[in-house]
Design brief:
This protein is an alpha+beta fold. About 25% of the residues lie in helices and about 35% in strands. The strands form two sheets. Strands 3-5-4 form a three-stranded antiparallel beta sheet. A hairpin with a 2-residue loop joins strand 4 (about 65) and strand 5 (about 70-75). It is globular, with a radius of gyration of 16 Å.
Length: about 90
């Protein structure tokens, strides 16, 4: 499986203090993601903003399942599309 490097940082400054707390999440592999992706996972993988991610998911080039307002995507289908293996998207 291909590796994906994703970094998310969160900096918090405590009031009256110059100390910053840095929280870093590093995902090195697609295996670290759940089998059913949500928009936040796709946003992280594609390194897109929240609004662009939802615009992209309104008319995606792969199968998306909507459950009420929730959007869910099979990790297998998404990774196949991302790597250009669209013929394997038959799930």
């Amino acid at each position: 499986m291909s590796e994906v490097n994703t970094y998310s940082t969160e900096s918090t400054n405590t009031y009256g203090s110059s100390e910053d707390k840095l929280k870093t999440t590093v995902i090195h592999s697609y295996d670290d993601y759940p089998s059913i992706l949500n928009p936040e996972d796709i946003q992280q993988i594609l390194r897109m903003g929240r609004r662009k991610t939802y615009e992209f998911l309104n008319n995606p080039p792969f199968h998306v399942k909507r459950v009420g307002k929730l959007i869910k995507v099979s990790k297998e289908v998404f990774i196949n599309w991302l790597e250009g293996n669209e013929d394997e998207n038959q799930v």
